Amino acid sequence: MKAYWFDNLPGDQREPHNSGRDVDPDYLAKLGVIYHNVPDVSGVDAIATSRNYKNRDEITVSPEKMGDIYEEKVKSFFHEHLHEDEEIRYILDGGGYFDVRSEGDEWVRIWLEKGDLIILPSGIYHRFTTDEQNYTKAMRLFKDEPKWTPLNRGNETDTNQYRQEYIKARQSLAAQ
């Protein structure tokens, strides 16, 4: 895992867009992002049990697996959105970027590769893209039935219950 501030320069979303300013993992934790390096699936099983994740599946995001819809899918994953559930991803192979919004509404880019597991809290604005290799194989974990509904950022998501709970939790943490 490598985290840094997104450079916001023009170019393909799959490029690193590394500003050269690293982000400390403690700052990610302050945003509610949980990261683990998990060398094998037995470690994922332990995390799943401890956090009550009951379901999982696997997804491969690549031109070979997705064919003609690959570019469209990668662009749709890159729309800024939130979820009403945690988003948990374990990278089985390849790599990709999760971008999360900072307290100042800037993008923090998190590059993940094989063995990395990330948990994004419900209500955090984020987006995903493959890296320049155009290949990510990931395990998706869920507390209940699989739910992938992205709520694209807009006025209605700013007042969403889960967004408000996320903001309140961050404010509470900052006050401590």
TrEMBL record:
Gene3D superfamilies: Jelly Rolls (2.60.120.10). Belongs to the acireductone dioxygenase (ARD) family. GO terms for biological process: L-methionine salvage from methylthioadenosine. Pfam families: ARD (PF03079). Binds either 1 Fe or Ni cation per monomer. Iron-binding promotes an acireductone dioxygenase reaction producing 2-keto-4-methylthiobutyrate, while nickel-binding promotes an acireductone dioxygenase reaction producing 3-(methylsulfanyl)propanoate. Ni(2+) binds at residues 81, 83, 87, 126. Its main location: cytoplasm. This is Acireductone dioxygenase. Catalyzes 2 different reactions between oxygen and the acireductone 1,2-dihydroxy-3-keto-5-methylthiopentene (DHK-MTPene) depending upon the metal bound in the active site. Fe-containing acireductone dioxygenase (Fe-ARD) produces formate and 2-keto-4-methylthiobutyrate (KMTB), the alpha-ketoacid precursor of methionine in the methionine recycle pathway. Ni-containing acireductone dioxygenase (Ni-ARD) produces methylthiopropionate, carbon monoxide and formate, and does not lie on the methionine recycle pathway. Its cofactor is Fe(2+); Ni(2+). It is found in: Cytoplasm; Nucleus. It catalyses: 1,2-dihydroxy-5-(methylsulfanyl)pent-1-en-3-one + O2 = 4-methylsulfanyl-2-oxobutanoate + formate + 2 H(+); 1,2-dihydroxy-5-(methylsulfanyl)pent-1-en-3-one + O2 = 3-(methylsulfanyl)propanoate + CO + formate + 2 H(+). PANTHER family: ACIREDUCTONE DIOXYGENASE (PTHR23418). Its EC number is 1.13.11.54, 1.13.11.53. One of its GO terms (cellular component) is nucleus. GO terms for molecular function: acireductone dioxygenase (Ni2+-requiring) activity; acireductone dioxygenase [iron(II)-requiring] activity; iron ion binding; nickel cation binding. Fe(2+) binds at residues 81, 83, 87, 126. Keywords: Amino-acid biosynthesis, Cytoplasm, Dioxygenase, Iron, Metal-binding, Methionine biosynthesis, Nickel, Nucleus, Oxidoreductase. It is an enzyme of class 1 (oxidoreductase). Pathway: Amino-acid biosynthesis; L-methionine biosynthesis via salvage pathway; L-methionine from S-methyl-5-thio-alpha-D-ribose 1-phosphate: step 5/6.
